[in-house]
Specification:
This protein is mostly helical and about 260 residues long. The protein folds into two domains: about 110 residues, no CATH class; about 140 residues, no CATH class. It has nine helices and six strands, in the order αβββαβααααααββα. This is HNH endonuclease.
């Protein structure tokens, strides 16, 4: 386990983001009063962008001094810290992404300084409409994996790859954040949306590890098979395919759970 940052570094990281989680999808305040106690309730942690341990998340061979420097830290709530450091998530939560979060969080804190906090009051009907629009985006992804090309030959269509990539960005060009028109202001809905987007990010990162055989459209609007693989299928490909199946199963479960929650 990487040695925690010095108290002065933790304090500086917390202060520079106004005490809020640096994950733009979260942005939760990480300090408040504890119920029944005069002590504060702390829900934030100073996370390491690069681990000092060789088997740790985003290891890059830093010296101990470099690892413990404030430049290698980002302030997150406990939930997000656990998520970004979870084994296997390093392809989703890259060092570059965490640095962007850090910079953006400091910009948000600067813009908020001296201004009152605002909590959006949402219209339940508008939030339901957002949720239904979100559901409408999920269907085409599921459809692609029930096509005969994938079910019979484990061949992803170009459209499937594109839809997953698009979905991993919140089905909008500017990403999954508060500016996204599908982003719900109802916290219960948003958390379920966020779980779906996260698994799409993981699937997209997994697909990006390997060049896939795909179908591409020709000038007559028909699909034409192209094999972009560098070598025939091997045992490692079967492991890769099993990992993809596991991720897809999680996606289908989360998508169904979201639909059931909205239509309940």
């Amino acid at each position: 386990m990487t040695t925690p940052f010095r108290p002065s570094v933790r304090q500086a990281l917390w202060t520079r983001v106004g005490g809020c989680c640096s994950n733009p999808r979260c942005d939760n305040v990480t300090l408040g009063p504890a119920i029944g106690s005069d002590d504060p309730l702390r829900t934030g942690e100073a996370a390491h962008i690069h681990s000092f341990e060789e088997n740790g998340p985003r290891y890059c061979g830093m010296t101990f001094e470099e690892c413990q420097d404030i430049s290698n830290g980002v302030w997150l709530c406990r939930r997000c810290h656990k998520e970004v450091d979870l084994k296997g998530n390093e392809h989703v939560f890259t060092a570059d992404k965490l640095r962007r979060w850090k910079d953006q969080a400091e910009e948000r804190a600067y813009a908020r300084a001296g201004r009152p906090l605002q909590s959006p009051v949402f219209d339940p009907e508008k939030e339901r409409k957002r949720a239904l629009d979100f559901i409408a985006e999920l269907g085409p992804i599921s459809d692609e994996f029930f096509r005969s090309e994938y079910r019979n030959g484990r061949i992803l269509t170009t459209k499937a790859i594109q839809r997953i990539s698009f979905g991993s960005r919140g089905f909008q060009g500017w990403g999954w954040n508060r500016d996204n028109p599908l982003w719900s202001h109802d916290d219960a809905i948003w958390r379920k949306q966020n779980d779906v987007i996260l698994i799409l990010e993981q699937i997209n990162a997994h697909i990006s590890k390997k060049r896939w055989s795909t179908f591409v459209g020709d000038e007559y609007g028909c699909n034409r098979f192209t094999d972009a693989r560098n070598s025939p299928l091997s045992d490692s490909d079967r492991v890769y395919a099993q990992q993809l199946e596991t991720l897809l199963k999680q996606y289908f479960e989360l998508a169904d759970e979201f639909r059931s929650y909205i239509y309940r």
